[in-house]
Amino acid sequence: MVFSSKFYIGYSDITKDFSISNTAILKLFENVASMHSRVAKDDINESDGRWFLTGYHVKISKRPVYGETVTINTWSRDMKGVQASREFEIYNEKGELCLIGISNWIRINAATQRLERISSELYQAYGSEPERTNFNYSWIEKLKESESYDFEKEFHIERNFIDANNHMNNVYYLDLVTNILPEDVYQKGDANEFIIMYKSAIKYDETVNCGFAATPDGYCVTIKSQDKTELKAVIKLSKSI
C-alpha cells in the first residue's frame, strides 16, 4: 500500500540557495512515515511497539525549492523477522521525480526494549510491496568506518537534539555532520547522495567524537563515543549519483 501526502517547502526547510536541505528531506520522510503508521493503526502513542531506524540511502536528482508543494509517496518495501524496509519518493509540482530514498528499521517492544518479531497482522496493515522499488535491494549494505581521518572534532549533545524516544533524533545526525565540516566542504552545499548507518543511540549530555575523511567522490564521517570505544554511526556523502 502506497501512502501519499503533500508538504509545503517553507523557510526552515531550505539552504542558502533556496532549495530543500538534506536535513529537511529526512524530516519529511520521518513525518510521512509516521502518518502511514497512524493509518496502519501502529501510531507511536497507541502501539506497544516502536520502529528504530538502522539506515538511510537517499539519492537526489533535483531539489524542490522554497514555496513548492511536493508530493511524497512512501510504502513498506519488505518486512522480515524483526526488520522492515521502507521506500520514499518526492515529486515536485511539475510531477517530476526529484529524489528517492530507502530506509531500514527494526521492531522493538516499547515496554521491554527487546526486539519484537513483526506480526502477520502488522504486515497486512502496512501492505508491503516487495516488487515496487527504485533500488535493487531491500537491505542497505553496512558501511565501514574510515581507517584514518583527516581530522577529528568533538561535539556535545544538547536537549534540542533529543526526541520523544529520549535519544538524538535520526534527522540530527546530518546536522551534526554539518557542524563539524571544514569550511570549504560546507560551502560546496549539501551532497546529492548520502547513506547513514545508525549503530547505537546518542543520548542527551553525551559528547561524541566525529572523524572526517575525504573520499574520491565526497567524504565520510564516523561518529563514536568520546573515548572511541563505541561506534554510533557512519555517514557517507557524495555530490554525484
Walk me through this protein's architecture.
- The protein has 241 residues and is an alpha+beta fold.
- The protein has helices at residues 22-39, 120-126, 172-180, 183-186; strands at 2-8, 49-60, 69-80, 83-91, 97-109, 151-156, 193-198, 207-215, 218-225, 231-238.
- The chain has a ten-stranded antiparallel sheet with strand order 1-3-4-5-2-7-10-9-8-6, covered by helices on one side.
Task: Record keyword descriptors for this entry.
241 residues, alpha+beta, ten-stranded antiparallel sheet, 10 strands
Strand line-up of the largest beta sheet: 1-3-4-5-2-7-10-9-8-6
- What is the CA–CA distance across the termini? 28 Å
Number of strands: 10
Q: What structural class results from the helix and strand content?
A: alpha+beta
CA radius of gyration: 18 Å
Total DSSP helices: 4
- Strand portion: 35-45%
Largest sheet: 10 strands, antiparallel
Which regions are unreliable across 5 or more consecutive residues at pLDDT < 50? none
Tell me, rounded to a whole number, the average pLDDT.
95
H and E string = EHEEEEHEHHEEEE
Question: Can you tell me the overall shape?
Answer: globular
Helix share, percent? 10-25%
Briefly say what this structure is.
This protein has 241 residues and is an alpha+beta fold.
